[in-house]
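Repro:
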Amino acid sequence: MNKVMIYTDGACSGNPGPGGWGAVLLSSTHRKEISGGARNTTNNRMELQAAIEALKALRRRSQVDLYTDSTYLKNGMTKWIKTWKKNGWKRRSGKQLLPVKNEELWRRLDRLVAKHHVGFHWLEGHAGHAENERCDKLARRAIPK
């Protein structure tokens, strides 16, 4: 199976406001950088979009290690999503069940993850990790002016 390391980041100018996302995909022989943006969004949406677009860019089933500085993305995919799905895409807030924020993006990401073997890893942002810093630059450059 193809092994790929993916680094992702999202950024916003205001929250909400215009935002961008960036991703770096690395395999044994290839490097691919992708980015994009949206005029009215949130930082969390851009973090999710980066992961979605990176997984969409894979041409074949892969073993993926996805690195993010977003605890929202990592925890969503490793801790919360099973409960959301069990509860009909609802999250618990006290005794209430409320809609999951950014549900459509979580659903898209969940469908893409199912096509691969994906491990989600958190790394500290702005801590000098070269690929994370590159993703940050890609995301910031993609913010619509």
